[in-house]
What we know:
Blueprint lengths: L8 H15 L8 H20 L4 H8 L7 H8 E6 L12 E8 L2 E8 L5 H6 L7 H16 L4 E7 L6 H5 L2 H14 L4 E10 H5 L6 E5 L3 E3 L3 H8 L6 H8 L3 H6 L5 E3 L10 H19 L4 H14 L4
Parallel strand pairs: 3-4, 4-5, 5-6, 5-7, 6-8
Antiparallel strand pairs: 1-2, 2-3
Helix pairs in contact: 1-2, 3-11, 4-13, 6-8, 10-11
Amino acid sequence: MRQFLDFEKPIAELESKLDELRNMSEPEGLNIAEEVGRLSDKVERQLRAIYARLTPWQKAQVARHPERPKAGDYVAGLITDFTPLAGDRAFADDAAVIGGLGRFRGRPVMVLGTEKGADTESRVAHNFGMARPEGYRKARRLLELAGRFQLPVLSFVDTAGAFPGIEAEARGQAEAIARAIEACLDAPVPLIATIIGEGGSGGAIALAAGDRVLMLEHAIYSVISPEGCASILWREAAQAAQAAEALKLTAEDLRRLRLIDQVIAEPLGGANRAPAEAIATVGEAIAAQLEPLLALDGATLKARRREKFLAMGRE
């Protein structure tokens, strides 16, 4: 059963009526097919009207939608012959960061992603996509492996941020994130990062310091969550909507600020309504961005990537 967000209540009511109509046996004198078509058109118009004027806070809710495709879904939909690689070779394997070898449209690649999980059991197993130090050290290891074997890197980012627990801090969370960012910047191969849901703080940047940073239309990318920002500035998480507005965390805001390179359109109503379509669109965008990067040598890629990030905020 489809889950609706608070601002989607008018759509939920219409779709409930639509389901009732579809399940009815056709009464005498009533053309159900015609009525279903009319109601379907009304649902689409309502969706277009609502999604044309989403606030930043509403976009944050869409980015967190539980039915939105996760990193594992993009890997399954876009990568063939995927072989997962585990562990940081120092402490443990962190399930919040997934990675491995595979083929993207026939080309060997290294894949990285932050995985939130799709149900209660998998969310707990993946720690809700919040990586510990060993997750970022695993990412660094795989980035270095990609450089050694000249494999382009594709990363899929969807995390509220790095895990803030005491044990993570004790094992060097900040250092692990910094080293992962360094590994991204130093990779002598093309690196394309896609923000597919939430891009939260350093936990996101650790896998997103790429040659091209793509972002889904209703994804968010920010130094802090709206709730966290509201708790600090107003001492009240209820001000999250105001914080979301101030943070400039939407894809359009970030493209305007030149912090990302491309906004990828989502199906009407968000990627959660048509996951296969959303995944295919992301695949097309990655393919288009990857092709010109493959012609560049490692030194040029590294120099351009560093200059790109150093230039942010200069103007």
